[in-house]
Amino acid sequence: MESKLPSVGTSIFSKMTGLANAHNALNLSQGFPEFDAPDRLKSALSDYTAAGHNQYAPSPGVASLQQEVAALIARKYDQVIDAQAQVTVTAGATEALFVAIQSLVREGDEVIVFDPAYDSYRPAVELAGGKTIHIPLYAPDYLINWQDVSDKVTAKTRAIIINTPHNPSAKMLKQADFKALKALVEEHDLYVISDEVYEHITFDEQPHLSVLRDAALLQRSFVVSSFGKTFHCTGWKMGYCVAPPVLAEEFRKIHQFVNFSSFTPAQLALADMLKYEPNHVDELAPFYQQKRDQLVAALKSSRFKILPSEGTYFLLLDYSAISTLNDVEFCQQLVEEHGVAAIPLSVFYASPCEERVIRLCFAKESATLIAAAEKLCRL
Protein backbone atom coordinates (compact mmCIF):
# COMPACT_ATOMS: atom_id res chain seq x y z
CA MET A 1 0.00 0.00 0.00
CA GLU A 2 1.24 3.50 -0.79
CA SER A 3 1.84 5.39 2.44
CA LYS A 4 0.21 8.78 3.04
CA LEU A 5 3.19 9.65 5.25
CA PRO A 6 6.13 7.92 3.54
CA SER A 7 8.79 9.84 5.44
CA VAL A 8 7.36 9.09 8.90
CA GLY A 9 8.72 6.19 10.93
CA THR A 10 8.96 5.32 14.61
CA SER A 11 9.40 8.47 16.67
CA ILE A 12 12.77 9.25 18.25
CA PHE A 13 11.03 9.32 21.64
CA SER A 14 9.92 5.70 21.32
CA LYS A 15 13.36 4.68 20.03
CA MET A 16 15.29 6.32 22.85
CA THR A 17 12.93 5.05 25.55
CA GLY A 18 13.27 1.57 24.05
CA LEU A 19 17.07 1.88 24.15
CA ALA A 20 16.94 3.19 27.70
CA ASN A 21 14.88 0.18 28.77
CA ALA A 22 17.13 -2.25 26.90
CA HIS A 23 20.28 -0.86 28.54
CA ASN A 24 18.75 -0.11 31.94
CA ALA A 25 19.72 3.52 31.45
CA LEU A 26 18.49 6.66 33.18
CA ASN A 27 15.81 8.00 30.85
CA LEU A 28 16.07 11.76 30.42
CA SER A 29 14.86 11.51 26.84
CA GLN A 30 11.07 11.28 26.62
CA GLY A 31 9.27 14.28 28.11
CA PHE A 32 7.16 12.76 30.85
CA PRO A 33 7.33 13.31 34.63
CA GLU A 34 8.91 10.59 36.74
CA PHE A 35 6.67 11.58 39.66
CA ASP A 36 2.94 11.06 40.05
CA ALA A 37 -0.12 13.26 39.60
CA PRO A 38 -1.46 15.15 42.66
CA ASP A 39 -3.29 13.02 45.22
CA ARG A 40 -6.45 15.14 45.04
CA LEU A 41 -6.63 14.65 41.29
CA LYS A 42 -6.23 10.88 41.55
CA SER A 43 -8.78 10.53 44.33
CA ALA A 44 -11.27 12.72 42.45
CA LEU A 45 -10.88 10.51 39.37
CA SER A 46 -11.56 7.43 41.49
CA ASP A 47 -14.57 9.06 43.15
CA TYR A 48 -16.15 10.14 39.87
CA THR A 49 -15.57 6.72 38.34
CA ALA A 50 -17.14 5.01 41.35
CA ALA A 51 -20.07 7.44 41.22
CA GLY A 52 -20.90 6.29 37.69
CA HIS A 53 -19.60 9.15 35.54
CA ASN A 54 -18.35 6.73 32.93
CA GLN A 55 -20.31 7.55 29.78
CA TYR A 56 -19.80 10.06 26.98
CA ALA A 57 -19.22 13.66 27.93
CA PRO A 58 -20.60 16.45 25.73
CA SER A 59 -18.36 16.64 22.68
CA PRO A 60 -16.94 20.13 23.47
CA GLY A 61 -16.29 19.14 27.08
CA VAL A 62 -17.87 18.95 30.53
CA ALA A 63 -19.33 22.36 31.37
CA SER A 64 -17.61 22.62 34.76
CA LEU A 65 -14.20 22.08 33.20
CA GLN A 66 -14.85 24.59 30.42
CA GLN A 67 -15.81 27.12 33.08
CA GLU A 68 -12.71 26.46 35.17
CA VAL A 69 -10.49 26.87 32.10
CA ALA A 70 -12.16 30.19 31.37
CA ALA A 71 -11.60 31.25 34.99
CA LEU A 72 -7.94 30.26 34.74
CA ILE A 73 -7.52 32.31 31.56
CA ALA A 74 -9.15 35.32 33.21
CA ARG A 75 -6.84 34.99 36.24
CA LYS A 76 -3.62 34.36 34.34
CA TYR A 77 -4.08 36.39 31.17
CA ASP A 78 -6.72 38.98 32.06
CA GLN A 79 -8.87 37.81 29.17
CA VAL A 80 -12.59 37.08 29.40
CA ILE A 81 -13.79 34.29 27.11
CA ASP A 82 -17.04 32.43 26.59
CA ALA A 83 -16.38 29.04 28.18
CA GLN A 84 -19.17 27.22 26.35
CA ALA A 85 -18.41 28.68 22.93
CA GLN A 86 -14.61 28.85 23.01
CA VAL A 87 -13.16 26.01 25.12
CA THR A 88 -13.01 22.52 23.60
CA VAL A 89 -11.57 19.64 25.65
CA THR A 90 -9.49 17.17 23.64
CA ALA A 91 -7.69 13.85 23.96
CA GLY A 92 -4.38 15.54 24.67
CA ALA A 93 -2.73 18.55 23.08
CA THR A 94 -1.65 16.49 20.06
CA GLU A 95 -5.28 15.92 19.11
CA ALA A 96 -5.97 19.62 19.56
CA LEU A 97 -3.06 20.50 17.27
CA PHE A 98 -4.18 17.96 14.67
CA VAL A 99 -7.78 19.18 14.67
CA ALA A 100 -6.75 22.85 14.56
CA ILE A 101 -4.57 22.13 11.53
CA GLN A 102 -7.32 20.15 9.79
CA SER A 103 -9.75 23.00 10.50
CA LEU A 104 -7.53 25.54 8.76
CA VAL A 105 -5.39 23.91 6.12
CA ARG A 106 -6.67 23.25 2.62
CA GLU A 107 -5.12 21.55 -0.40
CA GLY A 108 -2.04 23.50 -1.45
CA ASP A 109 -1.88 25.76 1.60
CA GLU A 110 1.45 26.56 3.23
CA VAL A 111 2.05 26.65 6.98
CA ILE A 112 5.14 28.27 8.47
CA VAL A 113 6.84 26.37 11.30
CA PHE A 114 10.04 27.04 13.21
CA ASP A 115 12.66 24.32 13.53
CA PRO A 116 13.46 22.70 15.84
CA ALA A 117 9.75 21.83 15.86
CA TYR A 118 7.51 19.34 17.63
CA ASP A 119 7.21 16.34 15.36
CA SER A 120 3.41 16.27 14.97
CA TYR A 121 3.08 19.55 13.04
CA ARG A 122 4.39 18.44 9.66
CA PRO A 123 2.42 15.14 9.34
CA ALA A 124 -0.83 16.88 10.33
CA VAL A 125 -0.32 19.59 7.73
CA GLU A 126 0.54 17.04 5.03
CA LEU A 127 -2.54 14.94 5.84
CA ALA A 128 -4.61 18.10 5.31
CA GLY A 129 -3.07 18.51 1.86
CA GLY A 130 -0.79 21.36 2.87
CA LYS A 131 2.93 21.96 3.00
CA THR A 132 5.09 23.09 5.90
CA ILE A 133 7.59 25.87 5.27
CA HIS A 134 10.43 25.39 7.74
CA ILE A 135 12.44 28.29 9.14
CA PRO A 136 15.42 26.99 11.10
CA LEU A 137 16.53 28.53 14.40
CA TYR A 138 19.98 27.82 15.77
CA ALA A 139 21.85 27.55 19.08
CA PRO A 140 22.46 29.15 21.40
CA ASP A 141 19.70 31.77 21.06
CA TYR A 142 17.10 30.15 18.78
CA LEU A 143 15.82 33.61 17.86
CA ILE A 144 13.24 34.23 15.13
CA ASN A 145 14.29 36.60 12.34
CA TRP A 146 10.91 38.07 11.50
CA GLN A 147 12.14 39.62 8.28
CA ASP A 148 13.04 36.09 7.17
CA VAL A 149 9.52 35.00 8.12
CA SER A 150 8.01 37.86 6.13
CA ASP A 151 10.10 36.87 3.12
CA LYS A 152 8.70 33.33 3.30
CA VAL A 153 5.06 34.46 3.26
CA THR A 154 3.39 33.85 -0.12
CA ALA A 155 -0.12 33.92 -1.52
CA LYS A 156 -0.38 30.28 -0.40
CA THR A 157 0.52 30.95 3.23
CA ARG A 158 -2.41 30.07 5.47
CA ALA A 159 -1.02 29.96 9.00
CA ILE A 160 1.97 30.22 11.31
CA ILE A 161 2.54 27.71 14.10
CA ILE A 162 4.29 29.06 17.18
CA ASN A 163 5.32 27.21 20.33
CA THR A 164 6.10 29.06 23.54
CA PRO A 165 7.65 28.06 25.90
CA HIS A 166 9.42 26.18 23.13
CA ASN A 167 10.09 22.46 22.94
CA PRO A 168 12.92 21.59 22.50
CA SER A 169 14.91 24.84 22.77
CA ALA A 170 13.36 25.87 26.13
CA LYS A 171 13.17 29.48 24.87
CA MET A 172 10.21 31.85 25.22
CA LEU A 173 8.79 34.33 22.74
CA LYS A 174 9.07 37.96 23.83
CA GLN A 175 6.91 41.05 23.30
CA ALA A 176 8.80 41.95 20.12
CA ASP A 177 8.03 38.52 18.68
CA PHE A 178 4.31 38.93 19.27
CA LYS A 179 4.36 42.43 17.82
CA ALA A 180 6.00 41.11 14.64
CA LEU A 181 3.67 38.09 14.50
CA LYS A 182 0.57 40.25 14.85
CA ALA A 183 1.76 42.59 12.10
CA LEU A 184 2.21 39.66 9.69
CA VAL A 185 -1.16 38.17 10.60
CA GLU A 186 -2.93 41.46 9.94
CA GLU A 187 -1.01 42.28 6.77
CA HIS A 188 -1.48 38.89 5.10
CA ASP A 189 -4.77 37.72 6.64
CA LEU A 190 -3.09 34.73 8.30
CA TYR A 191 -4.07 32.42 11.13
CA VAL A 192 -2.05 31.33 14.16
CA ILE A 193 -1.86 27.98 15.89
CA SER A 194 -0.20 28.62 19.24
CA ASP A 195 1.18 25.55 21.02
CA GLU A 196 1.33 26.62 24.68
CA VAL A 197 1.43 23.28 26.48
CA TYR A 198 4.22 24.45 28.83
CA GLU A 199 2.51 27.77 29.57
CA HIS A 200 2.75 27.44 33.35
CA ILE A 201 6.40 26.33 33.39
CA THR A 202 8.40 29.54 33.01
CA PHE A 203 11.51 30.52 34.92
CA ASP A 204 13.26 33.47 36.53
CA GLU A 205 9.97 35.35 36.97
CA GLN A 206 9.42 35.70 33.23
CA PRO A 207 5.69 35.82 32.44
CA HIS A 208 4.26 33.57 29.76
CA LEU A 209 3.19 35.79 26.86
CA SER A 210 0.17 33.89 25.61
CA VAL A 211 -1.81 34.68 22.49
CA LEU A 212 -4.70 34.77 24.95
CA ARG A 213 -3.40 38.10 26.28
CA ASP A 214 -4.19 39.81 22.96
CA ALA A 215 -7.90 39.90 22.11
CA ALA A 216 -7.29 40.95 18.50
CA LEU A 217 -4.70 38.24 17.83
CA LEU A 218 -6.91 35.63 19.50
CA GLN A 219 -9.58 36.29 16.87
CA ARG A 220 -7.26 34.66 14.31
CA SER A 221 -5.86 31.93 16.55
CA PHE A 222 -6.20 28.46 18.00
CA VAL A 223 -4.46 28.21 21.39
CA VAL A 224 -3.55 24.68 22.51
CA SER A 225 -2.89 23.70 26.14
CA SER A 226 -2.19 20.50 28.06
CA PHE A 227 -3.65 19.23 31.32
CA GLY A 228 -1.15 16.37 31.16
CA LYS A 229 1.85 18.72 31.34
CA THR A 230 0.28 20.89 34.03
CA PHE A 231 -0.88 18.10 36.35
CA HIS A 232 1.84 15.47 35.78
CA CYS A 233 -0.61 13.07 34.12
CA THR A 234 0.58 12.74 30.52
CA GLY A 235 -0.88 9.23 30.34
CA TRP A 236 -4.40 10.63 30.68
CA LYS A 237 -4.03 12.38 27.29
CA MET A 238 -6.09 15.42 28.27
CA GLY A 239 -5.77 18.83 26.65
CA TYR A 240 -7.88 21.66 25.30
CA CYS A 241 -8.10 24.28 22.59
CA VAL A 242 -9.28 27.87 22.98
CA ALA A 243 -10.44 29.75 19.90
CA PRO A 244 -12.92 32.47 18.94
CA PRO A 245 -16.43 31.07 18.43
CA VAL A 246 -16.28 31.01 14.62
CA LEU A 247 -13.02 29.01 14.66
CA ALA A 248 -14.13 26.85 17.59
CA GLU A 249 -17.22 25.86 15.59
CA GLU A 250 -15.05 24.60 12.73
CA PHE A 251 -12.71 22.90 15.20
CA ARG A 252 -15.61 21.03 16.82
CA LYS A 253 -16.91 19.79 13.47
CA ILE A 254 -13.71 17.81 13.05
CA HIS A 255 -13.12 17.00 16.73
CA GLN A 256 -16.43 15.12 16.86
CA PHE A 257 -15.21 12.72 14.17
CA VAL A 258 -11.71 12.29 15.58
CA ASN A 259 -12.46 11.66 19.22
CA PHE A 260 -16.06 12.87 19.76
CA SER A 261 -15.46 13.44 23.46
CA SER A 262 -12.72 13.04 26.05
CA PHE A 263 -12.41 10.97 29.22
CA THR A 264 -15.44 11.97 31.32
CA PRO A 265 -14.33 11.27 34.92
CA ALA A 266 -10.95 12.86 34.20
CA GLN A 267 -12.66 16.05 33.03
CA LEU A 268 -14.65 16.23 36.25
CA ALA A 269 -11.55 15.56 38.34
CA LEU A 270 -9.56 18.23 36.50
CA ALA A 271 -12.37 20.75 37.03
CA ASP A 272 -12.23 20.08 40.77
CA MET A 273 -8.46 20.41 40.79
CA LEU A 274 -8.58 23.79 39.06
CA LYS A 275 -11.34 25.00 41.35
CA TYR A 276 -10.16 23.75 44.74
CA GLU A 277 -6.36 23.70 44.32
CA PRO A 278 -5.52 26.69 42.08
CA ASN A 279 -2.18 26.93 43.86
CA HIS A 280 -0.94 23.88 41.92
CA VAL A 281 -0.76 25.91 38.71
CA ASP A 282 0.92 28.81 40.52
CA GLU A 283 3.54 26.53 42.10
CA LEU A 284 4.47 24.75 38.89
CA ALA A 285 7.11 27.27 37.77
CA PRO A 286 9.11 27.33 41.04
CA PHE A 287 8.78 23.54 41.31
CA TYR A 288 10.42 22.99 37.93
CA GLN A 289 12.87 25.87 38.30
CA GLN A 290 14.31 24.09 41.33
CA LYS A 291 14.79 20.96 39.23
CA ARG A 292 16.39 22.94 36.41
CA ASP A 293 18.76 24.61 38.84
CA GLN A 294 19.63 21.31 40.47
CA LEU A 295 20.54 19.69 37.16
CA VAL A 296 22.49 22.75 35.96
CA ALA A 297 24.48 22.86 39.20
CA ALA A 298 25.22 19.13 39.00
CA LEU A 299 26.53 19.54 35.42
CA LYS A 300 28.74 22.57 36.08
CA SER A 301 31.91 20.48 36.26
CA SER A 302 31.10 18.65 33.02
CA ARG A 303 32.52 19.41 29.57
CA PHE A 304 29.08 20.17 28.21
CA LYS A 305 28.08 23.72 27.36
CA ILE A 306 24.77 24.34 29.11
CA LEU A 307 22.30 26.40 27.10
CA PRO A 308 19.74 28.66 28.85
CA SER A 309 16.39 27.12 29.79
CA GLU A 310 13.71 29.82 30.08
CA GLY A 311 10.73 27.46 30.30
CA THR A 312 9.44 23.89 29.72
CA TYR A 313 11.12 21.02 31.58
CA PHE A 314 13.98 20.62 29.11
CA LEU A 315 17.65 21.55 29.14
CA LEU A 316 19.91 21.66 26.08
CA LEU A 317 23.56 20.64 26.18
CA ASP A 318 26.19 21.35 23.54
CA TYR A 319 28.67 18.45 23.44
CA SER A 320 31.08 19.93 20.87
CA ALA A 321 33.97 19.78 23.36
CA ILE A 322 33.35 16.06 24.00
CA SER A 323 32.74 14.33 20.67
CA THR A 324 32.74 14.78 16.89
CA LEU A 325 29.93 12.25 16.46
CA ASN A 326 26.65 13.57 15.06
CA ASP A 327 23.93 13.97 17.67
CA VAL A 328 22.05 10.78 16.80
CA GLU A 329 25.23 8.71 17.08
CA PHE A 330 26.25 10.54 20.24
CA CYS A 331 22.88 9.83 21.90
CA GLN A 332 23.13 6.17 20.98
CA GLN A 333 26.63 5.99 22.47
CA LEU A 334 25.43 7.90 25.52
CA VAL A 335 22.72 5.38 26.33
CA GLU A 336 24.67 2.24 25.40
CA GLU A 337 28.01 3.08 27.00
CA HIS A 338 27.22 5.64 29.69
CA GLY A 339 23.69 4.76 30.83
CA VAL A 340 21.89 8.04 30.09
CA ALA A 341 19.17 8.50 27.44
CA ALA A 342 18.81 11.90 25.75
CA ILE A 343 17.23 13.23 22.56
CA PRO A 344 19.29 14.43 19.58
CA LEU A 345 18.15 17.87 18.52
CA SER A 346 18.61 17.29 14.78
CA VAL A 347 15.47 15.13 14.65
CA PHE A 348 13.41 18.30 15.22
CA TYR A 349 14.68 19.83 11.96
CA ALA A 350 13.32 19.23 8.46
CA SER A 351 16.73 19.91 6.88
CA PRO A 352 20.09 18.47 8.01
CA CYS A 353 21.36 20.14 11.15
CA GLU A 354 25.04 19.95 12.03
CA GLU A 355 24.81 21.33 15.56
CA ARG A 356 26.04 19.07 18.34
CA VAL A 357 23.20 19.61 20.81
CA ILE A 358 21.12 17.16 22.86
CA ARG A 359 17.98 17.60 24.96
CA LEU A 360 17.52 16.38 28.53
CA CYS A 361 14.22 16.23 30.39
CA PHE A 362 14.45 17.28 34.05
CA ALA A 363 10.89 16.32 35.04
CA LYS A 364 12.51 13.64 37.16
CA GLU A 365 13.14 12.85 40.80
CA SER A 366 16.21 14.49 42.33
CA ALA A 367 18.01 11.17 42.68
CA THR A 368 17.62 10.51 38.96
CA LEU A 369 18.92 13.96 38.02
CA ILE A 370 21.95 13.67 40.30
CA ALA A 371 22.77 10.13 39.11
CA ALA A 372 22.47 11.17 35.45
CA ALA A 373 24.64 14.26 36.00
CA GLU A 374 27.34 12.17 37.67
CA LYS A 375 27.49 9.93 34.60
CA LEU A 376 27.57 12.90 32.22
CA CYS A 377 30.34 14.59 34.21
CA ARG A 378 32.59 11.59 33.55
CA LEU A 379 32.60 12.19 29.79
| Weakly predicted, low-confidence segments | none
> Beta fraction of the residues?
5-15%
Distance between the termini: 46 Å
CATH topology of the largest domain: Aspartate Aminotransferase, domain 2
Number of domains: 2
Number of strands: 13
Helix/strand/pairing class, anyone? alpha/beta
Question: Mind explaining what this structure looks like?
Answer:
With 379 residues, the protein is an alpha/beta fold. It has two domains: 12-37 and 281-377, Alpha-Beta Complex (Aspartate Aminotransferase, domain 1), CATH 3.90.1150; 39-279, 3-Layer(aba) Sandwich (Aspartate Aminotransferase, domain 2). The chain has 15 helices and 13 strands. Helix 6 links the parallel strand 3 and strand 4 (131-136). It is globular. It starts with 11 loop residues before the first helix and ends with a helix. It comes from Pseudoalteromonas luteoviolacea. Residues 25-375 form the Aminotransferase class I/classII large domain.
Summarize the structure.
The protein has 379 residues and is α/β, with parallel strands linked by helices.
Primary descriptors:
2 domains, four-stranded antiparallel beta sheet, Aspartate Aminotransferase, domain 1, Aspartate Aminotransferase, domain 2, alpha/beta, 379 residues, 15 helices
Topology:
Blueprint: H1 12-22, E1 26-27, H2 39-50, H3 63-77, H4 83-86, E2 87-90, H5 92-104, E3 110-115, H6 121-127, E4 131-136, H7 146-152, E5 157-163, H8 175-188, E6 191-195, H9 215-218, E7 221-226, H10 227-230, E8 239-242, H11 245-258, H12 264-276, H13 279-298, E9 305-306, E10 314-318, H14 327-338, E11 340-341, E12 343-344, E13 357-361, H15 366-376
Parallel strand pairs: 1-11, 3-4, 3-5, 5-6, 6-7
Antiparallel strand pairs: 2-8, 7-8, 9-10, 10-13, 12-13
Helix pairs in contact: 2-12, 3-12, 5-6, 5-11, 13-15
